[in-house]
Write a structure and sequence with these properties.
Blueprint: E1 4-14, H1 18-27, E2 34-38, E3 40-43, E4 46-49, E5 60-67, H2 72-83, E6 88-97
Antiparallel strand pairs: 1-5, 1-6, 2-5, 3-4
Helix pairs in contact: 1-2
Length: about 100
């Protein structure tokens, strides 16, 4: 089966910023992404957990995009415009997809 080169971008950001990030990605031409809740973790500020929180204000989400390599710069510019002033991590990895026409 033939595979095609793609980029997988994962952006972990505060839940309250998800709608702003989603809007920025759409404006940059990203046609698809998935938003996942983040249950907890550890970072520069130490361990944290979503447990016991009644609002989404203190939580985090992970936004995952699989895109064509040529759209990476536009996506990163859009993501950085939101992440720059907030808690957030952006990672990019090479991946392969089976149906390139979907990306």
């Amino acid at each position: 089966m033939q595979t095609h080169q793609a980029k997988r971008v994962e952006i972990t950001i505060e839940s309250v910023m998800e709608s702003r990030l989603s809007a920025a990605l759409i404006e940059a031409g990203v046609t698809g992404f998935t938003v996942l809740p983040v249950l907890g973790g550890s970072g520069r500020s130490g361990r944290w957990s979503r447990e016991g929180q009644v609002s989404r204000a203190g939580g985090m989400v992970s936004v995952v995009c699989i895109i064509r390599p040529e759209t990476l710069d536009a996506l990163l510019d859009a993501a950085f415009s939101v992440v720059d002033r907030h808690i957030g991590v952006v990672s990019v990895v090479d991946c392969e997809v089976l149906r390139a026409e979907r990306f």
